[in-house]
Amino acid sequence: MTRARHPPSNTEVANALREMSLFLEMDGVPFKPRAYEKAALAVEALDRPLAEIEAKQGLKGVDALPAVGKGIAERIVELLHTGRMRDLERLREATPIDVSGLTAVEGLGPKTAKILYEELGIRDVRALEKACREGRVRALPHCGEKTEQNILRGIAFLAGVGSRRPLGAVLPLAREIEGRLHEIAGVEQAAVAGSVRRRKETIGDLDFLVAARDPGKVAQAFASMPDVTHVYARGATKTLVRLANGMDADLRVVPAASFGAALLYFTGSKAHNVALRRIAQLEGLKLNEYGLFRDARRLAGRSEEEVYRALGLPFVPPELREDTGEIEAARAGRLPGLIEHGELRGDLQIQTDWTDGAASIEAMALAAKALGLEYIAITDHTRDLAMARGCDEAKLLEQAEAIRKLNRRLRGFRVFSGAEVNIREDGSLDVADEALAQLEVVGAAIHARFRQSKTQMTRRVLRAMENPHVDILFHPTARLIGRREAVALDVDAVIAAAKRTGTVLEIDAMPDRLDLRDEYVRKAVSAGVKLAIDSDAHDPSHLAYADEFGVAVARRGWARKVDVVNALPATRCLAQLKDARGRRRR
DNA sequence: GCCGTTTTCGGCCCGACTGTTTTCAGTCG
Fold it and tell me: What Å value separates CA A162 and C1' B19?
């Protein structure tokens, strides 16, 4: 372990805390694992670097963070100062395995990881896969052939995700690097391109584009950024590096006259570019990253708008550039007017400290108001979710009363009562209709029994949607990007049911959910189904996800403002939800 | 190890599911 050149980032600190949690769990230590895990979550939710907090306020400042007490604060400070956490190193020595990697395999926890090491000497996923294939795992206690199959399936799933990262884990870094590029002397324009700009849900690598006269100087500055760990290539206009987070980043430097054409080219998608070049070709033109040319004469290239215009097309928003009909729509003048960032007025899925959220109802309301929202719905978990100490009917109604009281004190902001009720195995709900009838916003969601057959799962979800009290289907496919596949669900049938019953479908904007995903959003929109774009916030810092990631997914799904119920003012949003209920009761 | 409108000790992490078992350990949310 080399000494860190720079103080560890919040993500690195969180990872260390999470690894502590896994090792402690492995040894059956009570309560501490949860404490470390909560601290890791809190560290990740911070909006400024721990190193900065520690530099300004010392140990006390770290200790003052939520979920961080004296013990964990001391370990964090040790890590910040020395790049090491001795307790963690001791645990690693005692059980020298890649505990994070192994437990990333679904269904495999730290206890099993330890047995695998002690009995078979397995230290990492590669050795685990080999052992499963050779049938050696089935000999272990509580393991059988099925266990091996499940582990292999889990490993295959992880491999399929590959090195792609969720957009939410990448976008902040991409912005930071983009900002740094702007600051380099001589840089006229700078932009992040590639799939980040198209807001794809997962990102393979980062592409940056700069317009500057002195490419060498920019490349030099880029390659010597603190998070660069390796420089693969540094040419006249192209620099390729490996970043500390394991991703590759690509920088291109072009003259300003080519910036638009290059941005178009490096934003992609490849298929969109191919289609554009075909159009150019038909006109006897040539489109490349330097511009749109007739022979040697450049017709366009300074901006993307200029290039599109010269091709006889309106500007196509990056989120649509997948060659899935946007070129035809653009030619026909039928591109949708996409919902814009900043157009959401409310948030219809919020958890609080009544269940597994971190903050009070009022704190969430004030944080939402500070973001410019006009209303939120409080949708805490319900009874069946024991881990979140789910609300029963009495608690929900007590909360609704607390919300009524709060609303009397809030100025220019409205809090709706609500719930995130569980859809049970048979499609019934875990809260009685009489209680749901008294809530303003009812979302229903799947939280268990994910492996039902498609037929069963679809019947289950449809039955819940038929309940006249259910306004919104929350995170409809229950996937977790990179961790859990979507449930087997006939989404077309769900969309048809949403249309019939007036149920709103949610885009859950938590970065690891983004559920509904873009392609389903597009189907829903074209079927005339209404959407809600919600943060699913468990902490005030999550509220921004709705506008950042939820709107991005909506745009990728061709959604307009009119398709989104929480782009409406509070009373009209609620009225739309209630209209839908009314239609269904008749 | 953290936390506190039950406040410096004593709770917190509970129920369901899975795959293995024959009474249960491990994992998940």
Answer: 28
Please give the Cα distance from A526 to A559 (Å, whole number).
9
Residues A501 and A454 in one domain: yes
Q: What's the rounded Cα separation, in Å, for the pair A120 and A140?
A: 9
Question: The domain containing residue A516 runs over which residues?
Answer: 346-585
Largest distance between two CA atoms of chain A: 76
Cβ distance A531 to A502 under 8 Å? Answer: no
Question: Which pair of structure tokens corresponds to residue A463?
Answer: 């039955």
Which domain-ending residue is among A69, A94, A119?
A: A94
Q: How confident is the model at residue A178 (pLDDT cuts 50, 70, 90)?
A: very high
**Å separating the CA of residue A517 from the C1' of nucleotide B4:** 41
Hey, CA dihedral for A356, A386, A442, A530, is it positive or negative?
positive
Q: How many CB atoms lie within 10 A of CB A483?
A: 14
Render pLDDT for A20-32 as a digit per residue (tens, 0 to 9). 999 999 988 888 8
Chain B bases near protein Cβ (<7 Å):
1-3, 11-21, 24-29
Residue A331 predicted with pLDDT over 70:
yes
pLDDT in tens, A366-405: 999 999 999 999 999 887 766 556 788 888 888 999 999 9
Q: What sign does the CA torsion over A64, A67, A69, A74 have?
A: negative
pLDDT of residue A57: 92
Residues A363, A265, single domain; the answer is no
Tokens, residue A375: 């209303």
What pLDDT sits at residue A271? 82
Domain of residue A301, CATH code: 3.30.460.10
Sheet holding A297-300, edge to edge: A286-288, A291-294, A297-300
β-pair partners for A208? A192, A251
CA–CA separation, A574 and A329 (whole Å): 33
Q: Give the whole-angstrom CA distance, residue A243 versus residue A306.
A: 34
- Protein CA A204 to sugar C1' B18 (Å): 34
What is the arithmetic mean of pLDDT over A530-557? 95
Whether A168 is covered by a domain: the verdict is: no
d(CA A248, CA A227): 11
